[in-house]
Amino acid sequence: MDDDVIRPDVHHDPTPGLIPVPHGPATGDEAVQLPFGHTPDPDHEKAIFSYLTHPDDIYTKDGTYWADLPLRERIAFVNKVQNEEAKQELKAIGRMMKKDPLSPVSWYFRNAVLPGAGLGLEGYVLFSIGNIEPLFRATWPQCWGHNATECSSNWIAAVTYLEVIGIMVGQLVVGVIGDWIGRRWGLIQDAAIMFVGLLMLTASWGLNLQGWVICYAWSLFFYGFGVGGEYPITATSSMEDSVSSGKLSTRNDRLHRGRKVTTAFLMQGWGQLINQALLIILLLIFHAGSGSPPYGLTTVQWTFRLSFAIPAVGTLWLVYYRTYKMPHASRQLIAAKKKSNVTGYDFDSLSMTTRHFGGRLLATAGCWFCNDVFFYGNKLFQSQFISVISGDNSSVMTGWIWNLYNVIISLAGYYLASLLMDNRFYGRKMMQQVGFLMCFIMFVIPAFKLEYYTSPAGIKSFQAMYFLSSFFNQFGPNSVTFLVAGEVFPTPIRASAHGFSACLGKAGALLASVLYNYIDTQTKFYVVPWFGLAGMILTWLFLPDTTGLDLKEQERRWSYIRAGKPEDYHGIAIHPMHLSLWERLRGVGKHYNPELDHKQKIEDMREEWAGKERMRREKEVTGQGMDDLEEDDFNDQVHNYFRNTTDQGMFVNNGSPGPSNHARNTSEPPFASGANSSKEVTQEKVRPASTSTTQSPSSTRPVSEKEQ
């Protein structure tokens, strides 16, 4: 070959005086582009996209999804992935401790304590109401006694009712606000309401005891509104925070989303523990080191008011932190609305969710309802065995000490739930079923022999069942309901669905609190166990298992539902492993097809890539900055592949193409304005769209003499 002949695929110096715009001078380093319509080699295509379509934590090397493996191979694969991840985490902890021995503590504070601070304060105050009631009863029998003379029994009962109703209203309203205005606004609003509510509780007063009780009850309602909002807002913001852009975050979402949300939720247990410990300390301080009655009015006033004033300081700091340190809390919601061209509340998504995910809503709301009856019913055990063990239980300190033991055991259940929540052989669904079953057993056994178990002969067994019911309630439905009520629903209505489920759950607590005023202890034990059995059946029939399934894949399925083509989705979100029995019986999983899904994923990514390219080019033309463009997971090979195989029409189409709308015009090659009909054309090497600052190859801007 003549040395003067320039080959486009071999490096050479740029041709003097020739500067093709906007590619820059040709040097032979440009990626080779095949003519449009050329069919890529499937194996080469799989090699390019494998890190995106078949991540190694859920797919084998030959591209088989872990849930499609035979049982023995499935066990080996899952154990290998989880063991390797555990080793990497231990190594990371080791590196942190080597650099700074206290760094794991600061990491835990940032990733668990701060996200769960609102729930910690909620647990502190919410359970404080029940903890200080015995102190009020011992101090003001004329209000809390059986023969109250100064206070209306209706207002005494309203202390509990208004608190629960306030929580229910907050769960519904803030759930809608979180999906309508945004997660960040909901977070700030909740913290501010809780702060004002704590000030109201601390300063509650009246001209007489009746007036004070009324003020106290309405203060609890106001505070309860903020507490209720914490449920949907904290759950959704915690799980969405782990699904930011980037494949690393998606991997973490699959492997650790349950742990991330549960470690925030378990701060509720720490709130209970701190409250009970602080009440004990305050009573000892103001009661001359004794916990025995009688209790002076000054002692009680200082004890209960300080117990509300101290968390008010932490809540004020929480208002500051959420206002100034969490600017991106609504990022995922904004992105989801943008894709659906929705600016306000997405009523269409709400309607579609009730149609397509009605069974899931029944599972999350119904199971939460059953669980809260149990959660409230756990107190039945405590009062019964304390009366047998202590004989004279007029001292509030006795009940507080036993409650402290119970909270510590509950915390163990919280942490074990956090540890196993993402285990693919146990996970969410199994944990909830086992938890409900154990609670059912722990209640139904003493129900039919209550006299024996509350006697000195059986009291030790009764205690054991009490503590086991507390443990399995946390290591089961109480932790799981909080998590799954958000993650099994799409982003646009996630907070609303979570808020509705939580609200119905609190209706269970309200039912228990009202019902227990009209039936005796034996009847209570006859009634309560069956809610555990009902919760287990609802879980088995209607709840899908989303363990190991990342939110991005669920959102991908949702995009097909939103486009009115749910049957065109073939991915792992409808794998039988991730569907409920009800959904499988309805045939939701019949469209699962790994081969079709692989092709589908590439076309879905093409649309995502084309949309970002279109935005980048528009910004280049208008001279806008690129800072607000989302980063993507695409490497240079993927960018080049899409540039070489994507129809130019996708860049001029206004709006985002919907799923399965992948028809391409094969009459013209892509980027026709800068290409010809030859067999091979050259193109610049591509940088990721989020960092590119050069003009698009499709531009036809004329060249001025100055530029030449």
Automatic annotation (TrEMBL):
UniProt-recorded Gene Ontology molecular function terms: transmembrane transporter activity
Keywords for this protein: Membrane, Transmembrane, Transmembrane helix
Low complexity compositional bias, start-end: 690-700
One Pfam family from the record: Sugar_tr
Residue ranges of domain Major facilitator superfamily (MFS) profile in the record: 111-547
Top-level taxon of the source organism: Eukaryota
Locations listed in the record: Membrane
Gene Ontology, cellular component aspect: membrane
Biased composition (Polar residues): 647-680
UniProt membrane topology term: Multi-pass membrane protein
Region (Disordered): 1-28, 611-631, 647-708
PANTHER family xref list: SOLUTE CARRIER FAMILY 22 MEMBER
The name this protein goes by in its record: Major facilitator superfamily domain-containing protein
Source organism: Sordaria brevicollis
